[in-house]
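I am going through a labmate's work and have reached the protein record below. What it holds is a sequence and that sequence's fold in token form. Please read both lines and tell me whether the tokens look consistent with the sequence. Do not assume that whoever made the record got everything right. Thanks in advance; the entry in question is below.
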Amino acid sequence: MRPHDGVDLARVGDAFVDDARDRTVKRGYLRHLVGASRVLDVGCGAGRFLDILKAAGIDCLGIDQSQAACAQCARLEHRVLHGDALVLLRRLHEERERFEGALLAHVVEHLPAASVLELFAAIGRVLTPGGKLVVVTPNVRNLIVLQEVFWLDPTHVRPYPRALLAQIGMAAGLHAVASYDDPATVPVRSPLRRAIASLRSVLSGADRSAPMDAVVVFTAPA
């Protein structure tokens, strides 16, 4: 059976993303990029983080393989490159483009481990010495994320626990300097539902109340 012509599976999961909350969460990434004058967003999507960087006065460049997403970024007057991230990163490296920071948000879970290793190394080559790479992925320590939310995106390949991301980053020549579950992504619930979820977590030993995103921050070698 042929997939429906014109359907971009990478965009199907967008229906489950709250735009306003996503922007709030992404503003929090700026604290890892203090002092950065130029930042790369790999997998920039519709450009929410590019909007935030631009508002903060930071020069930025986006990369995305979705033509529709790149068109949306272009309408917002962002500089964006359309195509395969590894090919584009190789070109940026050859052109001696350098960045003090980079964001890789909700990308790794779409890739097998060998590709994540290659992507980390490629980003590391375009970072300045000491430049930061912020990696964000679904937090599978939260059982609800692992059992349901992760699979709402049909293009997800596998989950990546923070410990594994840290090891892959080090194998790619980066240094892990921070690793945490992002408190800005704690599930939104009423006080009663929050209490019930916490109680169920305690009784079952499986966390249903943890933040929904995990973050690992790397630096490029000085």
Q: What stands out?
A: The chain has one domain: 13-219. The mean pLDDT is 89.
